[in-house]
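Shipment paperwork, digital attachment
Item: protein structure file
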Amino acid sequence: METLRGAMDQTKELQGAADAKVAGLLDGSGMDVHSAMIAVEQADLSFQLMMQVRNKIVAAYQEISRMQF
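Attachment content:
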C-alpha cells in the first residue's frame, strides 16, 4: 500500500509542477513552451506508472482472494 501512496504523491507533485508551468506559459511570465511540455509529459508518465502500480496491486489482491486456505 505504501508503494501506491508513494506513486500517488509523486504524481500529485509532478501534476502541480506541470500546472504551474502551463499557467506561467499562459500568463506570459517568461515560461518557455518546451519546459511546460516536458513537465506535462512527466506528469503523464507518472500517472501511467501510478495506474500500473495500482493494477498490479489489484491483480495481486484478486489472486490472493482466489486462493483457498
